[in-house]
Write a structure and sequence with these properties.
The protein is an alpha+beta fold and about 240 residues long. About 20% of the residues lie in helices and about 35% in strands. The protein is globular and about 65 Å long.
């Protein structure tokens, strides 16, 4: 009898799980929510994650400048992310508690700087690498951010990855094969794999994947751990 009940509950549980999956995969009906906030004439949402959405808006509430916006599923929940010192800003990526994009300020002239937020305008971090005149953040995995920056000489851009500060910026162009002149990083996953594209000498686009390479010390530590486990196993066998 107990076995029959266990079987019954197992089947019910499986059906519930499959029902949830099928609803996600096979949904054909949707409810639309107008996220345009009060005081904004126009707005765009670009990315969503975990019930939050990011984009930008323009209207009297933003002195008729574009401001990066963060929503929690409704127009009333909007947060204006535009940081102090910036006239215009745009949010393009979101993951975990982080939002990324870029912004302009009077002190920057016509250049734009990559920005990182953690849900408020006060949390904004200017990610622009010290060697770059302008930059933009396109995506985040909740811990690192990716995009591109441009050097003062020439007009080309280099793909960059950050870890929350301008000092942490890594120029990904250096890891490309010879022949590529410019590059942009567009997205990063939880494992640190980065995708984007690069231009070759003929101005043709190539899709690019950057994969993190473990530090040599990591292999040493793994080797030592394996040797330790092997020694423990040998001692147990010996005893």
């Amino acid at each position: 009898m107990n076995r029959n009940w266990k079987t019954y509950f197992t089947v019910v549980l499986v059906l519930i799980v499959l029902s949830g999956v099928s609803q996600k995969v096979l949904a054909t009906d949707y409810s639309a929510i107008d996220l345009n906030p009060s005081g904004f004439d126009i707005s765009q949402a670009h990315r969503t994650y975990g019930g939050q959405q990011v984009g930008y808006g323009h209207g009297s509430a933003s002195d008729n400048n574009e401001h990066a916006l963060l929503w929690n599923g409704s127009a009333e929940s909007v947060v204006d992310l535009n940081p102090s010192g910036f006239d215009r800003s745009y949010a393009d990526g979101i993951s975990g508690a982080q939002q990324v994009g870029y912004g302009y300020g009077s002190s920057m002239g016509s250049n734009f700087h990559a920005l990182l937020w953690s849900g408020t305008p006060e949390s904004a971090v200017d990610l622009n690498p010290f060697e770059c005149v302008y930059s933009r953040a396109n995506g985040t995995n909740g811990a690192q951010q990716v995009g591109y920056g441009s050097y003062p000489t020439g007009y080309g851009a280099h793909a960059y990855v950050w870890s929350g500060s301008p000092e942490s910026a890594v120029d990904l162009q250096q890891f490309l094969p010879n022949g590529f002149v410019d590059s942009t990083a567009t997205s990063i996953d939880a494992q640190g794999n980065i995708v984007g594209f690069a231009w070759d000498g003929n101005n043709q686009y190539h899709a690019i994947l950057w994969q993190p390479v473990p530090e040599p010390g990591t292999f040493v530590m793994l080797g030592m751990a394996a040797l330790s486990l092997g020694f423990v196993w040998w001692r147990k066998r010996a005893n």
